[in-house]
Amino acid sequence: MKQHCKNLSLRLRLILLFGMLALVTWLLASAIAWYQTRHNINEVFDTQQMLFAKRLASTGVGDMLLQNHEVRLPETKKLVHKSGRGHTDDDALTFAIFNLQGNMLLNDGENGKNIRFDKNTQGFIDSEINNNDDPWRLLWLTTADGRFRIAVGQEYDYRQDMAWNLVSGQLLPWLACLPILLLAMMVMMGVELRPLRRVAGDLHRRAPDDASPLSTDRVPSEVLPLVLSLNALFTRTGDMLTRERRFTSDAAHELRSPLAALRVQTEVVQLSGDDNEMREHALQNLTTSIDRASRLVDQLLTLSRLESFSGLDELKPVDWAELIAQTLGEQDAAAHAKGIALRFENTGTPPAMEG
């Protein structure tokens, strides 16, 4: 179970990552849309309140009220039947007109009768009205002749509800489509990750000694470096197998003669009987053959190690004179035993070489 959790599917991780990214993006877009919509709604309704207040101030309604002594309009539901009111809201807009003494001369018959008189404010203010604890946006305006005070109000909840309706109408459908988007992403990722599954299938079916390169046809550029690295690994593995086969073949071929000589010298020792001279000679030849076989094995192993290197480090120029003198010294004893004299005559300059 722990191993399964550690080896979580790349496809599943990408889907979870993109899903979280989409959700965070949606939340961020919602916050920005909510802020912008509230700002625009407040700007529109503030403008509407200002125009309405200026219209009331310019109609001369205050003088008519002083003559008729009317203090409020009838409620909307008394003016028109429910079927004729449309989609009106009592909190959308309300107003009241006062004289400078704070006496209410006229209101809209709805929430306007609850507006508290404010003598000093000129312009917009956030406040409350009587019998209502919700915040209101109020505009106070004094008429040009300075005789009346006009108040136009709107409940903030009305603005909030309108802003939410505008934002949710755009963002909620997108949120509802998020599962469809995730499903589409799952299908698309399954299709796009198919080359990885194909490479995995090729590796699964590959024979242990198969060093042929993987096909790079229709491999995405992101996966191509992995496939090329695997092909390079297969090439190195193939070269190593080739060297091992060649070393085995060379060792079998080169050791055949020394082993045959060892067998012959062993038989001579066995047949020498009481002939001490023959036995000693055979033992000496046997020792020489063993030394040659050991040297041959060492040379084959060294050659095998050198062939496995793509390049050698810490190279230095070869001193041919010292190398030849060392070789002659190693062979001098054997040559002298056979009556051969070894001598080196330098007849030219060998090419420079590093090793």
Automatic annotation (TrEMBL):
SUPFAM superfamilies: Homodimeric domain of signal transducing histidine kinase. It catalyses: ATP + protein L-histidine = ADP + protein N-phospho-L-histidine. Its main location: membrane. Residues 250-355 form the Histidine kinase domain. Its EC number is 2.7.13.3. The keyword Metal-binding does not apply. Gene3D superfamilies: 1.10.287.130, Sensor protein qsec. CDD domains: HisKA. It is an enzyme of class 2 (transferase). This is histidine kinase. It comes from Hafnia psychrotolerans.
